[in-house]
Amino acid sequence: MIALALATCAANRSLAANPDADTLRARLTEEANQAEAKLREGGMVVSDPELAAYLASVASPLLALAPDSSLPLRIAVLRDPTVNAFALPNGAIYVNIGALARVEDEAQLALLLAQKMNHIALDHTTQIAADRRSKTVAAKLTQVALAPLLGLSDIAFAAAMAGYSREREEEADRAGMEWVARAGFETRAAPRLFAVLDEGDRQVRCEELVASGAVAANANGRNDAAALRTAVAPITLESVRLSLALREYGLARDGAQLAIARYGESARLRADEGEALLGTAQAPAELPRELRARGRNQRDREEADTRELARLVARANEPLPDAEQSFRRALALDSTYGPARRGLGEVLLRRGDVAGGTATLSEYLAAHPDAVDARLVEGMLRRIRTAASPAP
Amino acid sequence: MLSLRCSRLVPWLCAWLVLGACATPAHQHPQLQSRLAEVRKVALVPVQASFTRVVLSGDDEQLQGEVDAARADIARAAEEQVRAQKFEFATLPLDEKTFQSDPELAFQLTLVQVAADGAMERALRGSPKSDDTLSGTRTVLAETDRLARLVDADALLFVRFFGWDKSGGEFAKDAAAAAVVFAASGGMLLAMSQPSGAEVVVCLIDARTGEVLYAKRGDSQSDASASTDPYELTLRALEQLKR
Questions:
Q1: What is the pLDDT of residues A237-289, one digit of tens each?
Q2: For B98, which residue in chain A has the nearest alpha carbon?
Q3: Measured distance CA(B3)–CA(A247) in Å, rounded
Q4: DSSP states along B131-197
Q5: What is the helix (H) or strand (E) element at residue A52, kind and residue range?
Q6: CB distance from A145 to chain B under 8 Å?
Q7: Residue of B104, B106, B140 with shortest CB distance to A41
Q8: Buried-most residue among A178, A285, B47, B97 (CB within 10 A)?
Q9: Chain B residues with CB inside 8 Å of A133's CB?
Q10: Distance of CA A85 to the CA centre of its chain
């Protein structure tokens, strides 16, 4: 665990001096401790001393700005490829490897950490937990894949994952920007964090803080992008691998392409890119919830959903040429790289080139007879041969 | 107009009713018998279990004692059914001590469980039609293989259990709400939700290919005896796994 046991504090405002709030806070702290224990038991927390030291070097000047309190802030990295970070009511801040891999420079990383620190310092984590029966919290909890798996149904965890109201986000964004400036980072570069997180409106608000002079620009402040990229290189690759393992193919594709742009191409990254593209080329059995039509008339909704599903099915194979190109590029870089050859075989089959696909998969088996997926590929080839042979 | 406050249990019950309504023929691999013929040993992966007591105050409780008992019952039922089909049976030796000596193993287990959860849901929805090589836990085959090798197993059995009951106060509140509806509507009966419920999902995965060989969901609502007993539910969920 990357635990920076650096003391700091929380300024408790709206819930201060409220006995019920104190009871709630104590309960939330206990639940957050339990949630953390489950994350550790599940092997979810990154253990990398070099990364820990680097994060400490970025976090330390921010933590020095926190008001005094008994609540210690700690930073840990979660082995989760989704682009997310969250703060727990016990002072723990978790940054997913997916988020760390996408942050572009130290100013952005400082804002990410400072913003989460301020959610704790401003007592937002407790306030949102007090509103735990809200539909937002309940709905968001169902979107957290790991929560039910690890038994993380606690209110503290649910609240942390649920996100905050616009007002609280704005409050933490502003305070985070102020901390970034006071800690000596190049504030002007920091708001791009929200472009990376695909939250453009927050980027604009933070840029306005700098433009208006409310927050110092620190044009020559600390912002070593190269140091960050070196520090997060291993977890960037890990993030791509985990995205593929969890079938988050869009994340995997973006992660592989980002890694290629930053660190240069390799057979592994090109094969991962191909695998991700192959994974995205799946015809959905049903329309994803977020794409379903809205409206009062059920018949209209159903017709719209049917059209949308047909469109998705028709477009399902569109990524296949790019996938083939990625696998071929990987093999050009390293002709012995097995996953690229297997992927090429699969993509050829999917594109209707049965002869080319079976030949490529056979080559893969011949070169890698002990591959972990050898049985799976053998089964695939057997089915193809059976389907091709004339019925007796 | 009578206004009824929604119980916290309503979303659960809706989900449960939907699951019950969609329930659930067993998913079987197209070549199940030939594939099972190649399986010598089945290993039970640590059971994912939860048991919630819904209480009037809103602070629902996770009952660890019930969870531990359910895990033991499920393991017993799984072993009985697996051995009855002449497979060897093992439990993956994954405990705190093992994880301390090999922290990566804990993460591999987490990954495989996530993948298996997804695979069993897809299998039970019947969705992996386009390319069955992409079903199952293919994306975490290396991790699946490593877990299976711990006990030299050919297939991994995953079981997920979800149980709940209501405290006396919560149940009394539901009864009172039903009585109010009955009185206010001039005799309209409001179906009372059950005081307890349970669901078991089982999934057998070929450790060498990652494919789902068998999956089945069973719950106390669709079970003829309305049993919430994890032992009984597990036995029934596995009874179609025959060779």
A1: 999 999 999 888 999 999 999 999 999 999 999 999 999 999 988 777 677 77
A2: A41
A3: 44
A4: -GGGSTTGGGHHHHHHHHHTTT-SEEEEEEEEEEEE-HHHHHHHHHHHHHHHHHTTSPPPPPPPSEE
A5: helix A49-63
A6: yes
A7: B106
A8: B47
A9: 8, 58
A10: 8
Q: What is the pLDDT of residues A327-365, one digit of tens each?
A: 999 999 999 999 999 999 999 999 999 999 999 999 999
Q: Chain B residue closest to A155 (CA)?
A: B59
Q: Among partner residues B107, B117, B139, which is closest to A79 by beta-carbon distance?
A: B107
**CA–CA separation, B206 and A372 (whole Å):** 12
Q: Report the distance separating Cα A331 and Cα A345, nearest Å.
A: 12
| A65 and A183 Cβ atoms separated by less than 8 Å | yes
pTM, to two decimals:
0.81
Q: Which residues of B touch A (CB under 8 A)?
A: 8, 11, 48, 50, 52, 58, 62, 96, 99, 103-111, 113-115, 117-118, 125-127, 129-131, 133-134, 138-143, 145, 208-211
CB contact under 8 A, A375 and B129: no
Identify the closest residue of chain A to B48 by CA–CA distance: A149
C-alpha span between B84 and A339 (Å, rounded): 39
**pLDDT at position A50:** 96
Dist. CA B212–CA B204, nearest whole Å? 6
